[in-house]
């Protein structure tokens, strides 16, 4: 017998849990007080600070009203996106009547420090009144020790994901010089920046930790990270990468010892430390070590985690041996639960070693449930990705991602040669960075439409805009004009009509759910998904800033609270 609802409120509460469109939730909250009491819980479950709404939070009066409203008690996820930087910078410049084009060096750094201070004040104010916070993520800002201290007091915090600002060393070194703290005779002002101001508290309940672009003296992070690992027995996901400038400073630092310069091997050293002290090994399910962080040798504690690992990322660059088959990575002990193995190969053998990897995967105990991601960035051929469809019941079909150049037609042969195109259910394509003589997106539609017909099982398609992938300096104004919402919508309709099986499409950062009429599947209607609705309901593996593994940007899974 179906459970009875004691009141209409219970029914509305159940309904609210299935709604992820934020505009719809907001409008429902405005209906009446009863609706507001129910739907505000779902609306405030995830609080996102971005370029569209940051002006609300920078207003002291509005922030105070939010804090006093009690709605933050429903917040489980807090995300600060990097788009807030430009908006707050423009706000400060307008208040001080500053021309941003004329700010540089120390003046620019002082502005950035002001931005970081304001954002940290907002973070502290929100977190203090969000006792149920479970996930925190921020991009491209400097988190203060006060913010970290407040976060450490959140008893339910499970996820911490931080992408540090890529110019953080330069910004803080300018501030240090301006404060008169630079020592006389210092050859390089950045060398005054010896220790990170950020101190990692002793988190005890963390399950997911992602730190990207680690900055400053990277060795001063080693002790902190080890303590976090040791104090977090429930840790299941670790994702780390180091800023290029920090590694460069470490290499040039004459005062650094040989062991200091071996920071890329720190995870292996941590494993050795656990062996020597007989520490209980981590129950890791996901390990992603970005560029220059070496994948640990499978021995001792590192070998013990093989029994729990489900996802592994390896940056196969010049600092490591080339992996040509799975035994090169794991030895004779293949991880019994491994679902995803990701390679970023900077050599010239990506296409060559892929068949042997596929063969060794399929001949292992995992069979066809195993997926491999392989990426190549030397510019001579498309990036290729094969990915198991995780999280889809009874569906072990692969996913493919690859990049195109302006000669789209030249890659159709490559697409046809991909293993098992008839089984591919998800496809992500990085569109060419040059359109030619037209400023219209449909100029390349024939190639896309022809290709989607080669994938009869295709359910989800993402055409990535290179301008949104951090390559704005290399993209023409003509290309930017092509990616208008109207142009993307027209393209989405035409591509959806070309594929009878497609149910989801994203072009750039615009996403649609595809509805088809039973009588004629070529007739489609597209439902626009807002950003959060797309992140909750869309394919998980599409929710990365750039699906090519190894990018220092945070992945969507780094911050998503799994309670939805």
From TrEMBL:
Domain of life according to the entry: Eukaryota
Name of the molecule in the record: Uncharacterized protein
Taxonomic path: Eukaryota, Fungi, Dikarya, Ascomycota, Pezizomycotina
């Amino acid at each position: 017998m179906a459970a009875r609802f004691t009141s209409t409120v219970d029914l509305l509460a159940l309904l609210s849990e299935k709604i992820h469109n934020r505009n719809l939730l907001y409008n429902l909250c405005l209906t009446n007080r009863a609706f507001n009491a129910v739907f505000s819980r779902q609306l405030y479950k995830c609080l996102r600070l971005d370029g569209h709404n940051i002006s609300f939070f920078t207003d002291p009066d509005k922030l105070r009203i939010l804090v006093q409203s009690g709605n933050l008690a429903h917040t489980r996820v807090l995300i600060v996106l990097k788009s807030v930087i430009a908006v707050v910078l423009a706000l400060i410049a307008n208040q001080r009547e500053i021309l941003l084009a004329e700010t540089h060096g120390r003046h620019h750094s002082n502005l950035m420090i002001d931005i970081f201070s304001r954002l940290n004040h907002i973070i502290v104010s929100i977190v203090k009144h969000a006792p149920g916070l479970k996930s925190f993520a921020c991009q491209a800002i400097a988190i203060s020790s006060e913010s970290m201290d407040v976060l450490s007091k959140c008893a339910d915090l499970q996820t911490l994901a931080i992408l540090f600002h890529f110019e953080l060393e330069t910004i803080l070194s300018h501030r240090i010089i301006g404060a008169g703290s630079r020592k006389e005779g210092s050859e390089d002002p950045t060398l005054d920046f010896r220790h990170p101001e950020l101190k990692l508290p002793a988190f005890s309940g963390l399950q997911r930790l992602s730190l990207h672009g680690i900055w400053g003296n990277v060795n001063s992070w080693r002790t902190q990270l080890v303590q976090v690992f040791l104090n977090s027995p429930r840790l299941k996901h670790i994702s780390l990468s180091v800023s290029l400038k920090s590694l460069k400073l470490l290499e040039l630092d004459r005062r650094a010892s040989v062991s200091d310069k071996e920071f890329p091997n720190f995870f292996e050293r941590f494993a050795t430390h656990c062996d020597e002290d007989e520490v209980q090994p981590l129950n890791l399910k996901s390990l992603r070590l970005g560029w220059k962080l070496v994948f640990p040798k499978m021995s001792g504690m590192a070998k013990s985690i093989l029994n729990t690992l489900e996802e592994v990322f390896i940056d196969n660059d010049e600092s490591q041996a080339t992996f040509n088959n799975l035994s090169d990575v794991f030895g004779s002990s293949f991880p019994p639960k491994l679902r995803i193995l990701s390679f970023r190969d900077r050599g010239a053998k990506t296409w060559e070693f892929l068949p042997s990897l596929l063969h060794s995967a399929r001949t292992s105990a995992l069979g066809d449930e195993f997926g491999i991601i392989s990426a190549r960035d030397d510019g001579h051929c498309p990036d290729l990705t094969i990915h198991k469809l995780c999280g889809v019941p009874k569906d072990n079909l692969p996913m493919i991602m690859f990049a195109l150049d302006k000669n789209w037609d030249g890659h159709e042969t490559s697409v046809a040669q991909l293993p098992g195109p008839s089984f591919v259910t998800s496809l992500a394509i990085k569109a060419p960075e040059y359109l030619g003589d037209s400023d219209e997106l449909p100029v390349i539609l024939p190639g896309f439409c022809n290709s989607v017909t080669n994938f009869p099982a295709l359910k989800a398609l993402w055409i990535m805009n290179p301008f949104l992938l951090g390559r704005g300096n290399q993209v023409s104004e003509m290309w930017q004009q092509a990616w208008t919402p109207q142009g993307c919508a027209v393209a989405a309709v035409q591509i959806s009509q070309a594929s009878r099986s497609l149910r989801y499409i994203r072009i750039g950062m615009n996403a649609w759910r595809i509805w088809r009429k039973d009588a004629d599947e070529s007739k489609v209607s597209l439902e626009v998904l807002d950003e959060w609705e797309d992140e909750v309901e869309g394919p998980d593996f599409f929710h990365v800033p750039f699906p090519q593994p190894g990018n220092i940007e945070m992945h969507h899974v780094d911050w998503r609270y799994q309670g939805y």
